[in-house]
Amino acid sequence: MESIVSKVLDNVDIRILDLLQKDAQLSNLELSKRVNLSAPAVHARIKRLESEGYIKKQVAILNHEKLGFDLLCFVFISTNMHQAEKLASLEGSLEAMKEVLECHCLSGEYDYLLKVACKDRKGLEIFIRKLNELGVTRIQTSLALREIKDSTVLPIHGDE
To answer: What is the DSSP secondary-structure string of 112-139?
Structure first.
């Protein structure tokens, strides 16, 4: 079964995206060698992929442990809010919290899953108090003991 992405993007676009998601520091010259296009053509494709939203942003991924964020937590929360304005306000507050690395709206037992980075237990306690102030009715926190896999690479290049 062919993916939706391949109907919109050609194989060169997919290859460029795959290379960039694995190493965003590759130069246009290096990319051009790997996909057999000129550097200006690669540059034009990257700009198009950015403008069409396939590339959201390019960032440096930091080592949280080296920077003193020793607690990586997954926080499940539920709320009794059902009004759109209140939910939008809650989601805006969650998005603005610097400790929240990811926030996902869920189906099932909990309403949201948060990936949270804290420096220590005190930081986690302060964070949970902030959640309580937002009107969250139920909180379950799980601490990550160790990381088995940490990746941002999507499996877009099928066969590899």
So the answer is: EEEEEEESSHHHHHHHHHHHHHTT--EE
Enter the pTM of the model. Answer: 0.85
Instruction: Name the helix (H) or strand (E) containing 91.
Output: helix 84-96
Q: Cβ-count burial of 13 within 10 angstroms (0-12 exposed, 13-18 middle, 19+ buried)?
A: buried
Closest CA relative to residue 154, chosen from 61, 22, 23: 22
pLDDT in tens, the chain (160 residues): 444 444 589 999 999 999 999 999 999 999 999 999 999 999 999 999 999 999 999 999 999 999 999 999 999 999 988 899 999 999 999 999 999 999 999 999 999 999 999 999 999 999 999 999 998 999 999 999 999 999 999 999 765 4
